[in-house]
Amino acid sequence: MKQTGNGQVKQMGIGRAFSANFLGHAPSWYKTTILAFLVLNPILMFTAGKYITGWVLIVEFIFTLAMALKCYPLPAGGLLAIEAVVIGLTNPHSIYHEVELNLPVILLLMFMVAGIYFMKEGLVYLFTKILTKVRSKVALAFLFSIMGAVLSAFLDALTVTAVIIAVAYGFYNIFHKFASSEKVYDTYDINHDHIIDDIYQEDLNQFRGFLRNLMMHGAVGTALGGATTLVGEPQNLLIGSIMKWDFVDFFLNSAPVSIPVLIAGLLTAITLEVTKFWGYGYQLPASVRKVMEDDAKAKDAAMDTRGRVRLIIMAVCGVLLIFSLALHLAEVGIIGLMIIILLTSFNGVIEEGRIGHAFEEAMPFTALLIVFFSIVAVIHDQHLFTPIIQWVLHLEGQNQLVAFFAANGVLSAISDNVFVATVYMTEAQKAFEAGGIALDHYNKMAVSINMGTNIPSVATPNGQAAFLFLLTSALAPLIRLSYMEMVKLALPYTVVMSITGVLATMYLL
Hints:
- By secondary structure, this protein is mainly alpha-helical.
- The chain has helices at residues 14-21, 28-47, 50-66, 73-86, 92-101, 103-117, 120-133, 137-154, 157-179, 201-226, 234-243, 247-275, 286-302, 305-326, 332-346, 352-357, 362-381, 386-393, 397-414, 417-433, 439-454, 465-471, 475-478, 483-507, and strands at 2-3, 9-10.
- A two-stranded antiparallel sheet has the order 1-2.
């Protein structure tokens, strides 16, 4: 609509209105690209066939993830998924089957992330103490990496990532609000930087880099630790159940590869911070440290008995959470629901609106994950990975183990780790049961598949659910953590960990 000379409002034409409404305020070039994809895919399918169109669809979906800061991937990626069903690349039954297989992950996102939300106050309190006491960035990088690894080995990478996102968001909010020139906080918006005082602009940019570094160290740490144990990643449980390995068996069989990779990853974190290489080395500005310290002192002074009891309840629930997850007393999502009930009950959160707010962060990502499973259904229905699988199975000896590691890594970087592990383990199991391979080699194949799905897949955000969750979180745009920035910051880790994994597979497995 626009204003005419006589003050009347002239209605916008239908075409322009449609263009304005389609994908909202996303750039025009982005809208045009998505429309071009939607027009191209049916044409491709009827000219080049379903196989080629399936691979093109994967590239298009990755594009929507890469442009997450321009437009949340759910609308555009969802349109591609709907079209895939309409033109016959997959069907609703296949999508539902993929969702069914990944129900534990969906329950985790729905309930565990919300549970972490109700622990945010306690987590920010704890990590503020750590951040203000540990002044060395190298020590902090190592601390975030090792904590991510240890916690993910016994808990779950998504849960651990949700914790560090909550902490980093809390830190950013404290300083952003302090640095804001708009001191009337009823109109304050954390997404707006024009309200930041000029004297704090550079410190805020430095602080963003500092948080990006810590988030990547922590996220990679979850992949390092998640590869070592039976409960570390969903695909580990799948592989362990097929191989009939218990917790100890899984750890010991994987150790010849997982432990060298873990050590290499931790050393990489230290090296990157010491050398300030490849986008790392950002320091915590003195002004930010002072704000954190002052905020912690003010909160300590203002905390009454009820506040202290809240923190105690959060600490008790935190310990209960760790033991419940470590002992796998129930599915992760069910444990998360238990934590929500305990925290809301004992900390007096009884209003529907306050409880509902906790689910806002995870639900868009849960919906996006369902769309992602639609793309996985296309991969399955069109057998897109079959040529690569057949090539690997025709190799022998150590060459085959290295190929398993590499192929699983490449495919997991563009697809779903659990899906890739399922496909390869099914084929390996068939070969073993047919008498084609010895038990010892079969065990080594399982380790190669496990490490392949866990380690090289850190190369892209869609390779790890925890990475994708971080990319699409409310924190990512605040600290300028785009898809390509994540790929860039992950690259040194990807190279070092993948080379270490290949060498360990060749000489130690």
